[in-house]
Structures are given as structure tokens and as C-alpha cells.
Amino acid sequence: xxxxxxxxxDVGRRRDGNxxxxxxxxxxxxxxxxxxxxxHAAGEVASGLAVDALAEAIHPSxxxxxxxxxxxxxxxLHAAIRDxxxxxxxxxxxxxxxxxxxxxxxxMIAAGDTAVIAHVGDSRAYRLRAGSLERLTSDHSxxxxxxxxxxxxxxxxxxxxxxxxxxxxxxxRQEVQVDVLTEGMRPGDVYLLCSDGLNTMLTDxxxxxxxxxxxxVPKRACGALIDAANERGGEDNITVIVISVS
Length: 246
Ligand code: CA
Fold this sequence. Notes:
The protein is α+β, with helices and mostly antiparallel strands. The chain has helices at about 40-55, 70-95, 140-150, 155-160, 195-200, 205-215, 220-230, and strands at about 5-10, 20-25, 30-35, 100-110, 115-120, 125-130, 130-135, 180-185, 190-195, 240-245.
């Protein structure tokens, strides 16, 4: 199985700065998107700390993706995210002006034929398989809790004024709860990791259409997704990673 991947981040049309970060290490089979929050540039500190912690945990000197087992990858990803959380918490204690900073994280490790995906917060992983898009992660957000309780529809949640409230983030408490899932990869699959600046501007149907059109060329898919989100208003930073399996 061969993976082709590309990642791109865009400030959008309304924000002054970009607090998103991403990491793309095809040689290690490591991909992640982090969406930072917190004023005075602290958001980008938090997302930067998160991707740095991941990069250090999944380092070429101690990680051979071709030989990696899925359970080993899951364990390592989990440990790396706990470490990222600790670094952000420590940084808040050391710097008064970073109080309240945090970040979401969605990360994927390709271990052999398995995609190991972990997330905290409302950054998402999707998969396009045989032309249809599937949301693999469930947002840790207030609006998604309402959706799960049947109190809001997905459509209303997408535009809801409280859609930015996340119920889990790195940096908000010492113990972080991480959701980890494993998915068998098949040739033709396309995996998408994104920050909410994409999926609050576009519906899943629109993402499916754009991704489906450009699935074979991840770079073109990233550009088209970002363009589409900006055409809709680009209200937030937009970050996408597209991974095509062949
Ligand atoms: Ca965001």
C-alpha cells in the first residue's frame, strides 16, 4: 500500500493570525492537525507545542513505520498526546499570559495497513471510500453533545453561535481523555484531517464533492478545499491534510 499526502494551512478571510499547526511526516506515517486557542498569540504556542511533542515522540531514531504494529502505534500516539498536554499545562504555569490557552489535536499514524487515529477536541478525521464521505471522529464540543442528545440537528450545530466551545482540549486539565480508533486502510481510500475552519464553512456533502473531484492528487484536493471554505466566508483558520491510499 502506498500513501500520497499533502497538507496546507490558510489564515482564512477574517482572522489576523493563524493559530492552526500541522505536521506531515510521510516517512514516519505521521500526520496531525492542531487548532490552538487563547489570546495574545498563546493559541499558536499551544498548537505548536502539541505538534512538537508528537514529532519528538514519533521520531525516525525510534520508530519504523513499516514494522509498526497498530497497537504499538496507538500506545505511542496516546503517550505522545499525554506528553503534549503536560507540556502545555506546564507552559501555562510558567507564563501568566498563557492562561487559558489550549489546542485541539487530530493525529493519524499509518502503521502497516492500519490507520491509527487519535483526537481531542473538534478537529476532525474523515474518510472518503468508494465515493462516500464518512466522519471518523466525534467532536468533543458542546454542540455535538446537543446533537448526540437529539437536541440539535447537525445542520443547526454547524452554524450555532456556541459551536466554538470545545469540551475537551489539550491544556485544559492535567488528565486528558484521548479517543483512539483504528481503521483498516484500503486502496482508493482518502483520509482527511482538518481544523473546524473547514467543516464550519462547508457541509459534509460539499467536502465529499470537492474531495471526490480531486482525490487522486492530494495537493490539488487541499487547495480546492481551502478555496471552497474561503469562498464561503473563511471565518476561521483552515487547515487540511489529505492522504490518498493506493
Ligand atoms: Ca478553529
